[in-house]
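User: Predict the structure for this protein chain, please.
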Amino acid sequence: MSKELSHDVRRNYALVIAAGICFGTTGTTQALGPDGISSLSIGSARLIVGAFFLYLYVKFTKIQSAPVPKLSMWLSAIGILSYQLTFFSAVKQTGVAIGTVTALGSVPALTGLLDYLIYRQKATKRWFIATIITTTGIIILGTANGVADFDLGGFILAIIAGGSFGLLAVSSKRAFTPGVDSTYTMYKVFSLAAVLSIPFLIFNGFNWLGTIDGVAMIIWLGLIPTALAYILYAKGLQGVKPGVASTLILAEPATATILAAVVLNESITLQGWAGIALVTVGLIYLSRETRVV
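Assistant: Here is the predicted structure, written as structure tokens:
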């Protein structure tokens, strides 16, 4: 393989990891926002504001693109909408540690499984090894402060959230047909998901959007871990298998934990740091793969 191709593959990996770091700011941002807000309301508002920022980016950069395949667009929109609703609900029922570990830890395996079942795409040996390493790290990190009482309903929601993100990864990847711009695809996907989410915002209330703290929170959530993150994710996904991308995205919980310690003064145990280190090792190992997809 030429050095140019190897560089392109690693650049795509770096873009996906950067997206995961952006995603990792979500929890801290919510913690710093107003109290007593419905997680469904935040998820819906995040989709709407994120779609607006993506629209501005597409408009001012004058992106030209062929139409996004409708089936891929709808499946991707359903995936990201389902992820927003089930993930935040799972975290609310099971707690941050178990909900996050179960959802994000299941993403790589479920994405690889969906990609194989739907498109017959086989994962590489390096992906299997990296997924085992990073998933183990996530489990170690998420259980660093002990495990609370098991909640079956919350656990199921977290698994659905992992599968939903996997559906987004697989479907959006397939939307990148010749002439279709990756950022334009995300704009269309999030716009559709935002429209579908409006009833959840109305039903769960949006008075908090009239407060300074509420506005500041939703602008950050819509701009950084949504618009910017998914622009980076989509650009990286163009040259990365969905299963690989879903493993790289595990940079999110490590980032979230570090931010919680630095910004929210939450303590990180030795086991927690060990989990972060293991996730990092897995990401670095996977990023060394130079296979073009």
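The CA atoms of residues 22 and 224 lie 6 Å apart.
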